[in-house]
Amino acid sequence: MVNVLVCSAGRRVKVVQYLRQNINKSGGKVITVDCNVNAPALYFGDEFDIIPQIDNEEYLASIIAVCKKYKIKGILSLIDPELEMLAKNKKIFDEIGVTLVLSPLDVIQYCYDKQETYNYLTTLGIPAIPTFSSLKTVTSLIERKELSFPLVVKPGKGSASIGINIVNNKIALKNAFSEGDDLIIQPFYKDLEFGIDVYVDLISGDLVDMFIKEKVKMRSGETDKAISVHNIEIETLVKKFISRTGFVGPIDIDCFKYKGNYYISEINPRFGGGYPHAQEMGCDFMDYINNNLIGKENKPYTNYRYEEDFVMMKYDDVFLYKK
Amino acid sequence: MVNVLVCSAGRRVKVVQYLRQNINKSGGKVITVDCNVNAPALYFGDEFDIIPQIDNEEYLASIIAVCKKYKIKGILSLIDPELEMLAKNKKIFDEIGVTLVLSPLDVIQYCYDKQETYNYLTTLGIPAIPTFSSLKTVTSLIERKELSFPLVVKPGKGSASIGINIVNNKIALKNAFSEGDDLIIQPFYKDLEFGIDVYVDLISGDLVDMFIKEKVKMRSGETDKAISVHNIEIETLVKKFISRTGFVGPIDIDCFKYKGNYYISEINPRFGGGYPHAQEMGCDFMDYINNNLIGKENKPYTNYRYEEDFVMMKYDDVFLYKK
Q1: Of the candidates A311, A317, A321, which has its C-beta nearest B315's C-beta?
Q2: Chain B residues with CB-CB distance to A under 8 A?
Q3: Per the database record, which ranges form the ATP-grasp domain (chains A, B) (predicted)?
Q4: How far is C-alpha A28 from the chain's CA centre?
Q5: Structural domain B190-313, CATH architecture
């Protein structure tokens, strides 16, 4: 029996629901916190608290107080800035017996900066989308015909599809890119796009499960529709990636197929927005979390645990509360 | 017992669910159609069919065939271009005994063009957001101090928040506005924003119900959070609007408060995206529709049928199907 805390629950109602279904079975509780009383997922846990924002100096003390109040055994977070904040303070949580269901700080830090992600993956021998921060480098690569238009100019940090510019010639590139604005340049390597939900055991560090989906329709950077697929190249790529890095817990990987090759484009060291697809098809990461929190290792990955060709569609549901 | 057809069901799962709950009670069925097999709401009716797109020449014949196949009594549509298409062919539907749960063509046509909406409302003596299609007119109004910055430049047609430019001076205005692009200019009349779900009886033409919500947070033009309110000025404005126009069935009205006054900014002659708020709080438009389709008039509006201060939040749910 464990109690689990979900931080920055936000709009991630499904994740809270799935976790609660699992944790409640053995008598545990899911506690949700958020700084915003209008976060719908708050209201889907067993209990909730409103806490200060991450940048508030009271934030950490509040989380610790919540952990003590509800005898929390494990913490999950659903937004990026908080992952780093929690990982930085791992020692404090260790001392009060709270497990962070989260990768260590050193690998988390590679995830938020696309240039860093590329450099890191390349060093490890993992194919990644070529990423450049210098216009001069890009221009000379174009001249040497080692890079060609269209190119993508986008913020080096940040998620979703905000601020993405696709450029088709040198003038457009020069207009879109300005040094110092923390922009990066990438080739347009996207024939197909995939998302992979991965769980790595917190105790053994072994890969436990993966769920591969092809993303079909995007709406403001979020996947609207996706299809479950089996894909040996992606499976091999993910296995290699996990064996060479220290990521643990739930991870969401974005991957592009381009001219027959696969490239990792993004790593989110947390549950991705498309995770419900995996869960609905039987990849129960919540059970892996529960096992790990009661000190039990999960069986290492052997094969796909889901069927191909299932389409997931998102739609709006609503929740009401009295002010 | 009536069977109802929902056209262009799209992502509007809640509307289909609410309608089905009501229609099934008396033994009727809800049939959904869409041109896209990936439209999640398709799968929440009793039966569904895939039909051609609205601009396909087979479209109308398909709808009629679906009506005959399922002995349809009433048709609802959830997207704008289709409303006009259906209303234009009212006679054909009349002949086969199918009621369009929809306003007549002459009033629908005022809704999609913001300049037309403004002209129409002004003629009727209903306060609307001043709307201009000529830069010259706007410039001279600014010079005469009858209009002031900030101004909003946006497409005269279309919905959501796509292509909206807020300008603060003449140069920015001139850059944002180009004649012939079907843009309009409006003052920035938005201290508060409200959405009103209205039902007007299909038989008597009388106002039956209204639900007023203040919109709190917008995300790509859609309301994420809203609070139910009672507001006598808006109530009076809506009563006046309905009594002076020929709208019937479900209508969604957008309204801005600015310096203490209320202005209608948009009329959607269909269920609005925020309708679930009204339904969840007891304003059961599905029951009004069912009554009308069995030939029964609904009682005219007397007072609010909902409580104030209830917050509605949207969140993503998911649905799976095998390809």
Answers
A1: A317
A2: 11-14, 38-41, 216-217, 220, 225, 227, 273, 276-277, 280-281, 307, 309-323
A3: 118-294
A4: 25
A5: 2-Layer Sandwich (3.30)
Which residues of B fall within a CB distance of 8 Å from A316?
Answer: 11, 13-14, 273, 276, 314-317
Give the nearest partner residue to B280 out of A12, A320, A322, using CB atoms. A320
Looking at chain A, the whole-number percentage of residues with pLDDT higher than 90 is: 85
Span A15-71, pLDDT tens digits = 999 999 999 999 999 999 999 888 999 999 999 999 999 999 999 999 999 999 999
Q: Which residues of A touch B318 (CB under 8 A)?
A: 14, 276-277, 280, 312-315
- Convert the pLDDT of each residue in B230-254 to its tens digit: 999 999 999 999 999 999 999 999 9
Q: State how far residue A309 is from chain B, nearest Cα, in angstroms.
A: 5
Report domain extents, chain B.
4-102, 130-187, 190-313
Tell me: the pLDDT tens digits for A217-254?
Answer: 655 545 578 999 999 999 999 999 999 999 999 999 99
**Does position B191 have pLDDT exceeding 90, yes or no?**
no
Contacts across the A-B interface (CB distance below 8 Å): 119
pLDDT tens readout for residues A271-322: 999 999 999 999 999 999 999 999 999 999 999 999 999 999 999 999 998 8
Taking the C-alpha atoms of residue A170 and residue A181, their distance in angstroms, rounded to an integer, is 18
CATH number of A130-187: 3.30.1490.20
Contacts of A92 (CB under 8 A, 6+ apart): A60, A64
Query: ipTM, 2 decimals?
Result: 0.83
Which positions in chain B touch A45 (Cβ < 8 Å)? none
Give me the DSSP letters along B140-178.
Answer: HHHHTTSS-SSEEEEESS--TTTT-EEE-SHHHHHHH--
Q: What does the pLDDT read at residue B227?
A: 95
Q: What is the 3-state secondary structure (H, E, C) of A53-74?
A: CCCCCCHHHHHHHHHHHCCEEE
Q: Contact B310/A317, CB-based, under 8 Å?
A: no
**What does each C-alpha distance from A39 to A167, B1, B234, B263, B309 come to in angstroms?**
37, 40, 28, 30, 16
Joined tokens for residue B268: 């959607």
**A4-102 sits in which CATH class?**
alpha beta
At A157 the pLDDT is 87
Nearest-by-Cβ selection for B38 from A40, A225, A319:
A225
